[in-house]
Specification:
Elements lengths: L1 H23 L7 E7 L7 E2 L1 H10 L5 H14 L5 E2 L2 H4 L8 H22 L9 E6 L8 H9 L6 E5 L6 H15 L4 E7 L12 H9 L4 E7 L10 E10 L4 H5 L1 E5 L5 E5 L3 H20 L2 H25 L20 E4 L4 H11 L3 H14 L6 H11 L8 E8 L3 E9 L25 H6 L7 H5 L2
Parallel strand pairs: 4-5, 4-6, 11-12
Antiparallel strand pairs: 1-7, 1-8, 2-3, 6-7, 8-13, 9-10, 12-13
């Protein structure tokens, strides 16, 4: 009896010790989102269907086949005509950009969205402890992070990080950097600023693998306010549960499938390989191998393993009875992601990207709707596109306390990054970038204006097109 009492007391002491250790050390390692602000450029930067035609006509190095290829790419992209471009392209100076154009594009975003987010949460710039800025294709000196520190007069001891070359997966990498700092320092605020520089990166040549990026990318940006302060827990919108990063840069083909380079005439552009979908699929598969055991309930993992085992047994039995060459089963075992995730927030790289992820994860049109509508309204805004998708879910009042949101993104390198957020409270009231138009989405019929006006171009003479 005395032995049992000692075991009981020891167990209680052990549990108390671990609770106390968690309370003192680990509770400050949580990472919460207090808020985020997506950038909406002014209407004079809107890229209409007619204006897209104008831009195409400016590139005199394009031949008939290249014009057809570009128009077909725009027609098939899923992008609407309310997206935004940088001012130098709007003004017809895309082939001779200046350093001032690049800074101006960033300044509009910085001075609008950072100020809005801090004001909304009544936090002064001097309270920010960690700053992470991600813009892949613009790396001036001093850095963009320093530019923000200077503009908002942030503290001398702020930890500022400036990331470049991370591609469309940059925002989750930035969150990962901020999370790493928050794990080792108590009671901190972190600001993640993510965008892309379109102004200086217009390709003026005729290489098909490089002109495609001209028609896919649009202007945007997002600012995310993170904290590990326990006192702010009740105000938080989301809690970071898991973050997984996979990098295939050691593989030469993966490294070169999405790369900035010069064409045969020395013109700099962004090369997108035709094998990019294959490398993206491999990277996604490796990411999910790590992520799935973290996010799905045990019952779903057990069910999947049983199905895989039974399928293997059936194949082996059929092989012995009928001989070799009997082929594969008509239906492959499928993981049901909906058992552990309620919402799917994916990069809006294009209609094909959304369709591909939807097919691989066996998602419904309801699950894909936020990404499709974001692509139509804002286009591919690179690393910040995930947050426009999240904003759509919030504006539609889909996010309820306890729900879990999976973010998936791809980037040059080649990389696939993912993270899982838990919704901390019912998000029934919001004031974000979607509020002035959310009532119009999803439309009964998603009309593609490019199809209506230019869908016939790849079957007609280019001379007719240029005279429109």
């Amino acid at each position: 009896m005395e032995f049992l009492v000692l075991v009981y007391l020891f167990s209680c002491f052990y549990l108390f010790f671990h609770f106390l250790r968690w309370f003192i050390v680990y509770r400050h390692q949580e990472c919460y989102i207090l808020g985020y602000e997506c950038f909406k450029p002014s209407d004079d930067r809107m890229v209409s269907t007619e204006f897209c035609r104008e831009i195409l006509m400016r590139n005199k190095s394009l031949g008939l086949n290249e014009y057809k290829f570009l128009v077909k790419a725009v027609v098939d992209s899923g992008i609407g005509e309310q997206t935004y471009g940088p001012r130098n392209i709007i003004m017809g100076r895309e082939q001779n950009p200046s350093l001032k154009d690049s800074h101006s594009e960033m300044d509009e975003f910085f001075q609008d969205s950072v100020q809005k987010l801090l004001s909304k949460h009544r936090i002064s710039p001097g309270e920010i402890d960690v700053l992470v800025v991600n813009v892949s294709l613009f790396a001036p000196v001093p850095s963009l992070a320093s530019k923000l520190v200077n503009h908002y007069k942030m503290r001398d001891d702020i930890k500022a990080y400036n990331l470049s070359g991370m591609g469309c997966s940059g925002s989750l990498i930035s969150v990962s950097v901020a999370q790493s700092v928050l794990k080792h320092e108590k009671e901190r605020y972190a600001l993640v600023v993510t965008s892309e520089s379109i102004s200086p990166n217009w390709y003026s040549g005729n290489d098909r693998s490089m002109i495609l990026s001209n028609s896919l990318f649009r202007s945007g940006g997002c600012v995310i306010l993170l904290t590990n302060k326990m006192a702010q827990r009740k105000r938080a919108m989301f809690k970071l549960k898991h973050l997984v990063r996979i990098h295939h840069g050691a593989r030469d083909e993966s490294y070169g499938c999405c790369i900035q380079k010069e064409d045969s005439k020395g013109r700099v552009g962004f090369h997108l390989s035709k094998d990019l979908p294959k490398h993206a699929a491999r990277c996604l598969a490796d990411n999910l191998k790590v992520l799935v055991p973290m996010i799905l309930p045990i019952r779903e993992l057990v069910r999947y393993m049983l199905v895989v085992t039974l399928t293997a047994i059936k194949l082996k039995t059929r092989h012995h009875i009928m001989g070799a060459g009997t082929g594969h089963p008509s239906k492959k075992p499928v993981i049901n992601f909906k058992t552990g995730v309620q919402h799917f927030c994916m990069h809006t790289g294009g209609k094909a990207v959304i369709d591909g992820i939807g097919e691989n994860l066996k998602l419904t049109e309801f699950d894909l709707e936020p990404a499709r509508m974001t692509l139509h309204r804002f286009g591919n805004t690179s690393a910040c596109s995930l947050w426009y998708v999240l904003g759509y879910m919030e504006a539609k009042k889909r996010l309820k306390k306890g729900d879990r949101v999976l973010m998936l993104s791809f980037g040059a390198g080649f990389q696939c990054n993912s993270c899982l957020w838990e919704v901390m409270k019912d998000l029934d009231e919001c004031d974000n970038v979607w509020m002035d138009c959310i009532k119009d989405y999803p439309p009964k019929t998603l009309v593609n204006p490019f199809v209506e006006k230019f869908g016939w171009i790849h079957n007609e003479d280019i001379n007719t097109f240029t005279k429109l």
